[in-house]
Each structure stands twice: as structure tokens, then as C-alpha cells.
Amino acid sequence: MRAAGHFFRNAGRFSHSGPKSSWTWKNRFSANNNPAVRWVWSTLFWLPTFTVFTQVGCTIRAVTGDSMQPTLNPDPSRPRDVALFNRWSIVMKRRYERGDVVAFRSPQEHGKLLVKRLVALPGDKVKTLPPYSDVEVVVPEGHGWLEGDASFNSEDSNHFGPVPLALIDSKLTYVVWPPKRLGAITSHTIGTQSERVVALPLS
Amino acid sequence: MASNVFRRLRPPAIGALHAVNAFCAFHLFLNYVGSIQLVNGPSMLPTMAVDGEAVIENRLSFWLNPGCLERGDLVTFESPLTPGYLVCKRLLGLPGDIICVDPTGLKVPSSEHVVVPKGHLWLMGDNADFSRDSRDYGPVPLSLVRGTLWARVYPFRHMTIFRNPTSFLV
Fold this sequence. Notes:
heterodimer; A: alpha+beta; 8-stranded antiparallel beta sheet; 3-stranded antiparallel beta sheet; 5 helices; 11 strands; 22% helix; 26% strand; B: Umud Fragment, subunit A; 2 domains; 10 strands; 24% helix; elongated
């Protein structure tokens, strides 16, 4: 019991000056004396702060797939770019802008995250690409039109239509790995994306 | 001198970090396990009043097992029209179901039917006259769903556990 009380009083403390005692099995595996155990407990103790930071601040993740070439994964032999996912501007600020590269939860498959470029916002008129049934769509309220930069091999809004903005999870702001291409991801539509979008005029 | 300042500031700094950590843990509990939510709006009228009611939202079940939803459940989800706005409707159709878009014929002719696509749900308010739901924005992606409503806790006189009212004709 004493060990448990000790853990709750000392878990996560930065000071590592536990009570001095002789070696026993109990001390060997109690939270305060074994550095490894102490490190694990301390990590678990501070886990909520880390988790919330990644949920509302930012996180670093690898991106797979070639639908965002040439912006991400341009080199087929290195198909795992690592990028900084900025959640703050989406989750807290709700800032959606045309041209942003964003990660969003797939509208078709629960639990899957996709990375595409936000091409059109609510009210915009978009000329769609082949797989889509209509030639032209007006993006409905609260939705966005998302396309891969390599639109010919990308499963995007041209397949499943406008996507609710609420599904957007974060904005990709920097490439972190490989170091050769380290730098900001530009928020510009590329190729024919901007030509096919008539933006809703600001009223 | 400087080390003295640090020695003095250290305990309150660690105390503040502990407070932040506790706040984060609480936030995660509300996000992944459940919380008490105030409901307002006329869209669920016979089931829930226009305002002044508090309900317990269960997020744990859906988070651990997204397949736990059944037709007739009260589902909370982020509105496809307004990002960040949580709404509650009743689950009418699961993926693969054929749904009559609007039996009342208010918004579209009552002869129109759709098949709920894979990974989507058909959600509708109990008060069809005053509800913006799947009839307006179509099937809702499962990724927008947050949880289910479990019970009403306020007003105390009307405390109830929400039972699934669905019965099937075989």
C-alpha cells in the first residue's frame, strides 16, 4: 500500500531523489527506485498533455501514396515523406483556404486519413474530372472540393463528391523528411486546378 | 542569485504543469469516454425538448466499436454544414439500406429512394418539419459520428435512459 501511495505522490515528478534504501525485490520494481520503471510511469503520467498537444497543436506523420505527386513523394523510390500536420489552424482557428494541402478523414472508410489539396470552398463552381457524374458542380454549404495533385491516379472528390469541411483534420505545412526537400508546402493550386474553379465572389 | 530564483519558482511551475496535465486528462475523458451535454433546438421534439435538457453522451462505445450503432439509436455527429458544431439525430439507415428520402414529401417527392453508401449513415430528426438532416445533406460519413446519447439527466423529473424504440416487421 505504501508503494502505491508513494507512486501517486511522486509520479511524474521531475526530481528523482527517492527514499534511500537497500536493495530488495520490492524496491527493485517499485516506481521510485528502478529508473526504467520510473521512466515508464512518468511517461504515462504526462501522456494526457502530449496527446492533447498533438490533437490541438501539431503532429508529425508519414505520408504514403503517390496521389500528391509532385508536392509529396515525388521520388517513387522514397514513398514515405514525413510532414508536419498543423491541427491548430483547422481545429482551433477553422481556417480553410483554397490551395491548402490538408489531411482529412475518408468519407468512405472510417478510420482512414487521406491527404489532398483543398481546391474549392462552399459556393464555388468546379469543373469536375472524368470519373465524376456531373460536368460541373457547385460545392454545397459546409463542404469542400479536394483533389490530389496527380489527379489521374488519385481517389478524391472526383470519385466521392464534395467532402464536409468537418472531416478535415489538419493542414500540411512543412516537409520534414527527406532533408533534401525540407521546407514549407506551398498553398497554391497546381496544374489545371485553379482554371477549373470559379470562386464564389466575396459579397 | 539566479539559481535561487529558479529554486523558488520550481515548485509553482511544476504545480502548474500538473494542473495542465490534469486538465488535459479531463479533456481526453470528455472526448473519448463521455460527457454531459446540453441539447437545444426543435429537431428532436417529442424525444427532447427545445431547450433546458441535459443528456449523457456515450463516446466510448462508438470509439471502441464503430459497428455498435443500430437503427433507432440517437447519434451525435459533427454537422456536415457547420464544422465543429455537434448535432444529434436518430439513426434510420445503415450502409446498404434502401431509404425513402422524405416520407412526408416536404423536401423531395416521397417516391424518391436512395441506397445508403458504404461507410455512411442515414440520420433524421424526430421532428421532420423542423429538422435539417440527411434529407438536406444526404448520407453522413461515419467519420463525422462522435457517439450516442445514453440518458437524460436533467430535468430530474424526466430522467430516462433512452431505449431503442425500433421494432422490425419480419
